[in-house]
Amino acid sequence: MRFATVVRVLIERRSAARRKESRVNVRNSTITNCYKTAFLLALVVAGPARAAAVDRLSPWGAAASASPGPASPIGGPANGCLAGAAALPADGVGFQAIRLRRHRNFGHPDTIAFVMRLGRAAQAAGLAPFYVGDMAQPRGGPMASGHGAHQNGLDVDIWFNLDPKPTLAPLARDDVPLPSMLLAGMHAIDPAQFDARQVTLLRLAAADQRVERIFVNPVIKQALCRGFAGATDGGSAWLHKLRPWPGHDEHLHVRLACPAGATQCVGQPPIPPGDGCDASLAWWLEKHEAPTTPVPPRPPRPRLPKACAVLLTAG
Ligand SMILES: [Zn+2]
Fold first, then answer.
1. CA dist., res. 158 & res. 213, Å (int)
2. Ligand 1 centre and the CA of 41: distance in Å?
3. Centre of ligand 1 from the C-alpha of residue 230, in Å
4. Burial code of 293-312, b = ≥16 C-beta within 10 A, e = fewer?
5. What is the model's pLDDT at position 48?
6. Facing residues of 182 across strands?
7. Domain limits of the chain?
8. In this structure, are residues 70 and 84 in contact, taking their beta carbons and an 8 Å threshold?
9. Cα 315 to ligand 1 centre (Å)
10. Nearest residue to 200 via CA among 125, 129, 130, 254
11. Residue 22 C-alpha to ligand 1 middle, in angstroms?
């Protein structure tokens, strides 16, 4: 295949995966355009090496079961794997797992326990059940589509849709409503979708001791900083864990800290102190023009920890 064709195929594959992943309307926001541009440039610069990297991801998606033995996150969220994973039940108090055919409903037992705690707390707060989306593959590792992270079993996507839900059989939940919380253009909250219910869910998740970070769209974080739907009643300190990140307008992405004693788990640097309602948030909301000069090539993705290669073939 010619180089240009490889790049085009990769772009199409990535686009299709993204459409399927989030069901977000393709909308032209400055931020997403910047990301698209950066991604395209990175593809062009990285070229065939990138193509090879994508193809190498598949063995992890093919792992059918968790590895035997004690649970252990290995490596980081974007460069790791997971030993001894547990599966999230399809149904629980306050939640329903969706898209189970994707086989991404596995996680560290702490992550499973967190989802169950959050479900109970959400139900006690009067919320309708939330949908739980991707966690990790049975042995973690890179995914062929949709995410750079979710590799070491400590990440979970929870959808913002808190409307009352029909009781569907687990495998009939592949195509459920997962609306964006933002208006078309992605510059403002959609008050018909996002209200005090979602703020409550975010508060409950942020209050959980095991939760280290919660990724939300910068526009959502900005609205919360401004007190949308009572978000700053009682102060803004709880917004500390909410990290602005593109996308994440229809789901929140929760990341747990490395469990105590998990010596192979690689954590992230701590979040800077404060509520994050500052220049670091404003940066995401400013207009950034696409670079006019070629961007330097991305450094090659670091190799997975050696223990992951062993894990892939264990048991
Ligand atoms: Zn996620």
1. 13
2. 23
3. 26
4. eeeeeeeeeeebbeebeebb
5. 33
6. 189
7. 3-313
8. yes
9. 28
10. 125
11. 10
SS3 275: coil
Å from CA of 69 to ligand 1 middle:
26
Q: Which of 111, 84, 81 is nearest to 95 (CA)?
A: 111
If the chain, 315 residues long, is cut into consecutive pieces of 10 residues, what is the mean pLDDT of each piece?
A: 40 41 37 39 34 54 92 96 97 97 95 98 98 97 89 98 95 96 95 98 98 98 98 98 97 98 96 97 90 80 89 85
What is the per-residue pLDDT for 20? 40
Q: Do residues 215 and 148 lie in contact, with contact meaning Cβ atoms separated by under 8 Å? A: no
Give the list of residues 6+ apart from residue 281 with CB closer than 8 angstroms, or none: 218, 221, 222, 225, 244
Q: What is the pLDDT of residue 300?
A: 77
Question: Which residue in this structure is represented by tokens 């592949």?
Answer: 174
**Phi then psi dihedrals of residue 136, to 5 deg:** -135, 165
Q: What one-letter code names the amino acid at 195?
A: D
166 alpha carbon – ligand 1 mean position (Å): 24
Decide yes or no: CATH 1.20.1530.20 for domain 3-313: no
Distance 4 CA to ligand 1 centre (A): 30
Quick check: 76 and 82 in contact, CB under 8 A?
no
